[in-house]
Design a protein that fits this description.
Helices cover 37% and strands 12% of the residues. The protein is α/β, with parallel strands linked by helices and 288 residues long. Strands 1-2-3-4-5-6-7 form a seven-stranded parallel sheet. α1 (34-46) packs parallel to α10, α8 (214-222) crosses α9 and α8 runs antiparallel to α11.
């Protein structure tokens, strides 16, 4: 089982966090899918996928409430719960209220990791000060950011305690590799992880184009795997990247978990790169 070596990514019980998380964007929004989504989350926990990511934005808190129900009978100390705060709530006026509301919906008294969802108008210095205060109150164990590019990260670490940031959650998948040029190397050199959201490019025409790609299909056939598993294996090849795919059924969760057993070869990576080459210059950070 691939785990995260960064010391901040350990559960309260001291167990390692598996390098494949469970994303929950859009989960909890449709009551008719609730049973399947609960089963998917519980299946992931049973398979050892103990990192679960959410946000106060997701479904207006319904995603957090769904997770709270899914983990009710689970040992909290074995889990690694991540949530995010809206940029307009990431200051002295609202962050405590936002954090406590997320905790209530999740049914827990602390978050393992709390992220600034994207950059807003509140200064980094104020947000970092607030994050550190939440740590001192025991409401969160660590903090990080999301959707910040290299220049943002460079600015962040210049403010007091800015280096305490442990992760940047970003869009990253085979067809969106711009972060490989500078952001991923920068994060690794500063001892920070990258959490990859939408690692399966789970939206619109791009997803359909990827799934039907000839090179991707050929690599999947060699490994007797699905194309989705190869997409996850692609992000897992980097030791400091944690993909967090969404799943709304136990079947999909099981399929995702099996990607942890796939090791791509140099030949595989070369084939994947023919249609989706690594970047040769700086590009703006992709965000969805």
């Amino acid at each position: 089982m691939k785990t995260i070596s960064h010391p901040a990514f350990q559960t309260a019980s001291g167990a390692s966090v598996v390098r494949l998380g469970q994303g929950t964007w859009h989960l909890g929004e449709n009551h008719s899918r609730r049973s399947s989504e609960l089963a998917a989350l519980r299946c992931g926990i049973e398979r050892g996928l103990n990192l679960i990511d959410t946000a106060e934005m997701y479904g207006g808190g319904r995603s957090e409430a769904l997770i709270g129900e899914a983990i009710r009978e689970t040992d909290r100390a074995s889990l690694y719960l991540v949530s995010k705060v809206y940029p307009h709530n990431a200051g002295r006026a609202n962050i405590l209220k936002s954090c406590e509301a997320s905790l209530k919906r999740l049914g827990t008294d602390y978050l393992d990791l709390y992220l600034l969802h994207w950059r807003g108008n509140i200064p980094f210095s104020e947000t970092v000060e607030c994050m550190e205060e939440l740590i001192s109150r025991g409401l969160i164990r660590h903090w990080g950011v999301s959707n910040l590019d290299t220049s943002d990260m460079q600015e962040l670490i210049q403010v007091p305690n800015g280096t305490h940031c442990v992760t940047d959650q970003i869009l990253y998948h085979l067809a969106s590799r711009g972060v490989e040029f500078d952001l991923l190397p920068w994060l690794e050199s500063h001892g920070m992880t990258a959490m990859a959201y939408c690692p399966l490019a789970q939206y619109g025409d791009l997803e359909r184009g990827l799934i039907g790609n000839r090179g991707l299909t050929a690599v999947a056939r060699r490994h007797q795997a699905s194309t989705a598993q190869i997409l996850l294996a692609f992000t897992l090849q980097r030791s400091h990247v944690i993909p967090i795919p969404k799943s709304s059924s136990p079947t999909h969760t099981e399929e995702n978990a099996k990607a942890l057993d796939i090791s791509l070869t140099a030949e595989d990576l070369a084939e994947l790169s023919r249609d989706y080459p690594a970047p040769t210059r700086k590009t703006w950070l992709d965000i969805v």
